[in-house]
Specification:
Length: 499
């Protein structure tokens, strides 16, 4: 059945689990996160489809189910699963996307690795996604493509289906031209993105960077520029923009450039945070700390997250403030990524070695300054620690958005707690009532955590009140509503142009 909404995303919209020797497709337990949010769009369509890849030992195996029909809380929809070999996944995702694109998107030029990239395979996989989307889409359908590993899909899809409305959303930062143009495939990538009707980013800075890149490579005109909302402009954060381009003209077509940050499922998080059992468990955690202050840091093991830099800041603070020894504990959650990739393995090793050195240097028989956790924590357990922590310390070197800091704020239904946030996280544009810090500055990092630990209760509550207002306003539901508005406006522009 043709679909009037097609979502193209590398992940499947469910969990595959083994039960009694059989593979079962199970709905995601939590409505928090990008996959459940995208699925909520199915309610705006008569019939929807989802395009994803699935690992296959033999893509030609006739028993491989390329299309499955799913019925869950979001309705009935089709999932087109593209069978990719281990070699294709390694080339398309682990090499091209993670070793070449990821460092450039996050402005780590020194980690860019061009040599192993197999560009023909990247094209081949993107073409397969485009073909699947073209096959599923009804006449005039909305097609929503997600993230940088599918950069070429819009251009291919436009060749196959000129009738559809194409939107692309970046979940990463987008750097300025002098960084992005390190990529030797820059023209092909940007030309594909300019075939979209909408190109979306988290914040105006990334949108402005994209336009600067596009104009460095092609004859692109800015048709419309809009003033950024005053509450999203702060002199104390590095990523603020006072105005941003919102409509481009390219080869006789108009391309909208949107800025809308992904948020969190605030209602769901608040519901879990106010659950009596969750609150009782949080009190037990708090009780177990005694008089010690609890600092919580949560992130993935990635060189962009600045894990070692944060630990070294904590070491300096303990060295320079002997009175804090034994009175503060850092729970550092750094979830291991793919250890088969050397960059991530080195980062994990660095975190483990630094944490071990600090514990060895300052620890006593009854106090270890750092609890290092390298495995994923169930979301309900994480909420307990959000509630128990005195401070959330979120200091990536660069981050497209960062939802952990928003989860922490949403969970603090008690109105207390302090958020220390890197000014290079996209979320800092909205959450400028946090204690904003520069993770590249030792002085800024050290003073920020000390300020958080010493902050009077009234200031804590005043800041948290404003943070909770902003997180509630820019929720994941608000992000979804903005994407729907962008689709409606793009369809209206096309109808006007065709009239």
């Amino acid at each position: 059945m043709p679909s009037d909404l097609v979502i193209v995303y590398h992940r499947q919209p469910y969990e595959e689990v083994e039960e009694n020797g059989q593979t079962v497709l199970r709905e995601n337990k939590s409505p928090n996160g990008i996959v459940p949010t995208l699925k909520s769009f199915f309610g705006t369509a008569e019939h929807a489809a989802w395009i994803a890849w699935k690992l296959a030992d033999d893509p030609a195996n006739p028993d491989f189910e390329k299309v499955v029909e799913i019925s869950d809380a979001h309705g009935t929809y089709s999932v087109s699963r593209l069978p990719l070999t281990h070699e294709q996944v390694s080339s398309f995702y682990h090499v091209s996307s993670k070793e070449a694109f990821w460092p450039i998107l996050h402005s780590f030029k020194e980690k860019f690795n061009y040599d192993p990239v197999d560009w023909p395979t990247f094209r081949e996989v993107n073409w397969a996604f485009a073909e699947a989307a073209a096959r599923e889409a009804a006449q005039g359908a909305r097609v929503w493509i997600h993230d940088y590993n599918l950069w070429l899909v819009p251009g291919y899809l436009r060749q196959l289906r000129s009738d559809v409305t194409i939107s692309f959303f970046h979940h990463t930062p987008f750097p300025a031209a002098d960084m992005f143009n390190v990529l030797p495939w820059r023209r092909e990538i940007v030309k594909s993105l300019l075939e979209c009707d909408i190109v979306g980013f988290h914040i105006p800075r990334y949108a402005a960077n994209f336009v600067s890149v596009a104009r460095s490579l092609f004859d692109v005109d800015v048709v419309k520029r809009e003033t950024v909302a005053a509450e999203l402009v702060s002199d104390g954060t590095a990523l603020s923009e006072r105005s941003a381009p919102t409509l481009l003209s390219f080869e006789g077509r108009q391309v909208a450039v949107s800025s809308a940050s992904v948020g969190v499922a605030v209602d769901f998080i608040e519901e879990r945070a106010t659950d009596p059992q969750v609150q009782a468990d949080a009190k037990e955690i708090r009780k177990g700390q005694g008089e010690r202050r609890l600092i919580l840091s949560v992130g993935r093991t990635d060189y962009t997250k600045g894990g070692v830099d944060q630990l070294e800041s904590f070491e300096r603070v303990l060295a320079d403030n002997p009175d804090l020894r034994g009175k503060v504990k850092l729970m550092h959650v750094s979830v291991s990524a793919n250890r088969n990739m050397s960059a991530y393995a080195l980062t994990q090793t660095g975190i483990e070695e630094t944490a071990g050195r600090i514990n060895g240097r300052f620890g006593t028989l009854d106090w270890q300054p750092i609890a290092l956790i390298s495995r994923a924590i169930p979301f309900d357990d994480l909420i307990k620690y959000y509630l128990a922590a005195d401070v959330a310390w979120i200091t990536p070197l660069v981050d497209g958005m960062n939802l952990v800091c928003k989860e922490f704020v949403a969970a603090r239904t008690d109105g207390d707690g302090v958020l220390v946030l890197s000014e290079f996280a996209g979320a800092a544009v909205e959450l400028n009532s946090a204690v904003i810090t520069n993770p590249f500055s030792h002085r800024s990092m050290d003073q920020a955590i000390l300020q958080a630990l010493e902050m009077p209760e009234k200031e804590r509550r005043d800041r948290m009140k404003e943070l909770r207002r902003v997180v509630g306003k820019y929720s994941v539901a608000a992000w979804g509503a903005e994407q729907e508005r962008q689709f409606s406006a793009a369809i209206a522009r096309k109808e006007l142009a065709d009239a």
